[in-house]
Amino acid sequence: MRSGPRGGHFREQDVASHPLAETGNSFIRIEHVSKSFVGVNALTDVSFAIARGQAVNLVGENGSGKSTLIKILAGAETPDEGAITVDAEVHASLDPRQSVARGIQVIFQDFSLFPNLSVAENIAFSLELAEGRTLVRRRHMRATAERVLERIGVTIDLDIRVEKLSVADKQLVAIARALASEARLIIMDEPTTALTEREVRSLIAIIRRLKADGIAVLFVSHKLTEGLEVCEKVVVLRNGHLVADAPASEFDAGSLAYHMTGRRLAETAKPPLAKSSPAIMSVRGLSRAGVLREICFDLAHGEVLGIAGLLGSGRTELAKALFGLIEVDAGKLLVDGKRVPFGSVHTMIEAGIGYVPEDRLTEGLFLPQSISRNVTIGTIDSHAGRGGVLDRSGLRAQVSNWLARLNIATSDSEAAVQSLSGGNQQRVVLARWLAKRPKVLILNGPTVGVDVGSKTDIHAIIAELAASGLGIIVISDDIPEVLASCNRILVMKAGQIAEEIPGASIKETELARRLMS
Amino acid sequence: MTDTNAAPAPKNPSPAAPGFVVQLMQPGIGRLAVMTIVIFIAMAALSPEHFLTIGNASSMAFQFPEFAILSLAMMLAMLTGGIDLSIIGIADLSAIIAALILSHFAGANATGVEAGGAMALAIVVSLAIGCVAGMFNGIVIAYFGLPAILATLGSGLVFTGLGFAITGGSAVVGFPGVFAVIGNADLFGIPVPLIIFVSLAVAVWFLLERTAFGIKVQMLGTNPLATRFAGIDDAGVTIRTFTYSGGLAAVAGLIIMSRSNSAKADYGSGYLLLTILICVLGGINPYGGFGKVSGLILAVLSLQFLSSGFNMLQASNFFTQFLWGSLLLVVMAVNTIQFRRRAARSSSKAHV
Prior knowledge:
Shape of chain A: globular
Number of strands of chain A: 20
CATH superfamily of the largest domain in chain A: P-loop containing nucleotide triphosphate hydrolases
Helix content of chain A: 25-40%
Distance between the termini of chain B: 17 Å
Strand content of chain B: under 5%
Oligomer: heterodimer
CATH architecture of the largest domain in chain A: 3-Layer(aba) Sandwich
Largest interface: A-B, 59 and 38 residues
Number of domains of chain A: 2
Strand order of the largest sheet of chain B: 1-2
Largest sheet of chain A: 6 strands, mixed
Strand content of chain A: 15-25%
Radius of gyration of chain A: 25 Å
CATH class of the largest domain in chain A: Alpha Beta
Number of strands of chain B: 2
Shape of chain B: globular
Strand order of the largest sheet of chain A: 6-7-8-3-9-10
Distance between the termini of chain A: 43 Å
Structural class of chain A: alpha/beta
Radius of gyration of chain B: 22 Å
């Protein structure tokens, strides 16, 4: 590093001198950029600017062109038309080296860290390479890492291997690495996807520090709320077009969703059910050493029950216990008045319980297999006639019926399910369970990684299913989701139900506070 | 709006519309078929006077069914995401038991009801032993959580060891003449082993493509965790698959026994790696979940053409093995390159 271990101060001065010199001038301007891939227009005439130390929230649904824009800024894609101006210098396109040299750093969703290297090595590695070092200088790397972490006010053990860190800490390491390489614009691609509410709070605090440090942040997301509070400006992309570019103060979750989807999405909180509805499922005294303590609740016919809790609160263990995936130490379960023993998935399915797992990609779907197989695998035995021979026309009818009912957009049900978007993939898992006609459906994180439009659709599906008499449990740490879809909310903390809140009786911020307190 | 939620449909990104020939060159059955035909033509061109004869066709049709059936057994295990290294052990052990029954109850000079009855008993018992041995593999894998490669490596050694213990390492001989029909006779000019193989191949195809169980096997091989979450009895599927695999191995054992008119604890030991090679060459995904019987048959045929062809040119057996290995490497390399290109393309599209 040019100025040695004190380089951090050098940077601050450097940045501090600029805003005065170029009052109101932007650091980077994207001007009339268009890009198409084999006939598909990914971006059409997109223009906006990012100022020094400004946080810009770039929002759009999956397929809106966000990723293409990031790649153009990172120099990984060349725009067909338009220009990118960095520091008043006009470029028709950037290559990755230019992009880095101009201070543009992208933090992708997977962070692109080296899991087997230490924190210090990860932070300092690209800088050392950029300086053309051939030999490892541990002490120097440590100094760089320490200095950078201090800048964002974070302490992480420098010697620990990155694979042992939590997702949130890995993200911090990625941010620190960007800073070590003299970043002036940090692009964060979906930075909050894998974070709990609390971790999101601390990420936002760090973004504030970066801004104060003169570093611009492009916060790319399809979650609506977090960006608004930390970003000065919101830029919305829809189908490759820029549909809004305005100060964040002019948006709220509703108007943002409108811009992203082009339609009004009215999501109102649901009131509690009338007291008289009979219970379809009752849980009493469910305990498992270390994770669940004395869980008791009833779920009524047609009720959507939310179980809100942070990561580690026991919410996923509760779901797994109810689906027989883990053993329990004590507890009683009644479904439709009949006692059901814990500990076997088969028994739970027989009793009418369905479970849509948390991690759709590893637990829910057979990614390379066809959509139709993914839909029918749960009910395949009911289509087997004598000798196990499949009734293929019956299967096809089932598939087309469910694709239509859940509005799954595909032209070919024999295509691999991985070719679908997140929202449609989730509907495939839902279809598999609904085909089994369950009495109780447990949805763990039903809209994780699903874009806003599909999210509302999935919430509508949940409401429709409940109206048809199903009991539904929604487990989630997405507070707006819990509020929008549940008649009643149980707050879980440390393996216990801490609180029961009737639907439509609590505000988002208040529920968030109670989850974290 | 929902229409645009789907990832960009797989519009063909290559500039030219794929013609028939291009399609045949896609990974999969088409390309394998082309490769098989090319090998056939090459072998025929090298020595037409030997290769393109009824005699050669017939001798090939007697040779390959035994290892083709073993390959079917291997294929089933591979589809679950596992492997079955014990098929040779099962084939030999079940054949040895069959041989003991035949020589004990009938003997070399028996005919008529005595021979027929002993043969029926021998076949039933050996198939049962094959199935039980396979079921044992399945249970060890499903309930004790051992990786298939270790479970079947161990059980294969056990089965072979039992065979040696029973026979003392020598061949069991002395079967009634009628038993030779299984491996050596023909029906309207079609070799009996070929008929057996074709029937079994059709049965396996039907099992995999037309029954609920077959779909479950492929889903289990694709993602065992999701199988459990979907409420499929993954242990049951594993056990049943390995049971079938053991049964198929026993059939192969009977054919080998009939062709060599003896049973021995170390027959066919060279076939184990060959069956893996055939499966991989035939497009059975070694990680499980994907594979077609048609691919396996094409792989068997290409290897048989190669070995017969070079055999006629008086090339050494080692040269044939060298060619088999090279063929596998080339096919795998081509498939991998294509797979990477497609992955790169689809990922660049997915991030639009």
